[in-house]
Structure formats: structure tokens, C-alpha cells
Design brief:
It is built from five helices and five strands; from the N terminus they run βαβαβαβαβα. The protein is an alpha/beta fold. The protein has one domain: Response regulator (Rossmann fold). It has a five-stranded parallel beta sheet, sandwiched between helices. Helix 3 packs parallel to helix 4. The longest helix has 17 residues. It is globular.
């Protein structure tokens, strides 16, 4: 079943690899280089529907992934959107901060295609049931 997924990562290469991978699986994917640009697209009405899942890099220009996640989780309409943080850092503190910011999962770069798809499918299927 096709889902709407946002990819927010300042690396064009990472964004494109993830976008192509997810599009091949039949998902609708939109990428942004930072969270502020993403929020602008929604508040301006450029994008009409909320995503089912967001892949959110932690180290972003303008506002960190933690800040974007915390902001989104304060918005009632965004509260049920699944957030998967992605980062090159793999520390316990990084994972804890992501969880406290509202992320349901955490992936460490480089991410294998199999792990990416497994994580996305697990979280999208659990939200469909719940």
C-alpha cells in the first residue's frame, strides 16, 4: 500500500538514494534539504496532505532534527506522524535525545536499503493496525 513519506536531509545524495529506493517500493516521496523549508511547504499549502512517515536527519542547517521533531509533536495534526531519525552518530545519548524529541526509530548512516525498508514497513504497518 502506497504511503506518503518525507525525507529531510541536507545531503542531496542521501535524499536521492532514499527517494529512489522508496519510490521503487511504490511510495510517494518528497525530499527537503532542511526542516524549515519542509514546514513552509505545509503552512503555505504547497503540500496538502500530512505524511505517513518522516525520515529526519539530525544535523540540519537552520534547525536540528531534534528541534523539528519536537515542534511537529506539539502540533495535534502531526502527532501521529511516524518520525524516523537518521544520523551518522550512534551513541546512546543521540538515540535517547531522538526518542525524547518524539522519534519512533533511529537509523545510523550509512543505511542499508534492507534496514531502511524493514524499519519503514514495520512502523507504517504498526500505525495501520493501531
Amino acid at each position: 500500500m502506497s504511503k506518503f513519506i518525507l525525507v529531510i536531509d541536507d545531503s542531496l545524495t542521501v535524499r536521492k538514494i532514499i527517494e529512489v529506493t522508496l519510490q521503487r517500493e511504490g511510495h510517494r516521496v518528497i525530499g527537503f534539504p532542511d526542516g524549515i523549508e519542509d514546514l513552509r511547504a505545509f503552512t503555505s499549502g504547497q503540500i496538502k496532505s500530512l505524511p505517513d512517515l518522516i525520515l529526519l536527519d539530525i544535523e540540519l542547517p537552520k534547525a536540528s532534527g531534534y528541534e523539528i521533531a519536537r515542534y511537529l509533536k506539539t502540533r495535534p495534526d502531526w502527532a501521529k506522524v511516524v518520525i524516523v531519525m537518521i544520523s551518522r552518530h550512534n551513541g546512546v545519548i543521540d538515540r535517547l535525545r531522538a526518542r525524547l524529541a518524539g522519534a519512533q526509530a533511529y537509523l545510523t548512516k550509512p543505511i542499508t536499503t534492507d534496514l531502511l525498508l524493514e524499519t519503514i514497513n514495520r512502523h507504517l504497518n504498526s500505525t495501520a493496525i493501531g
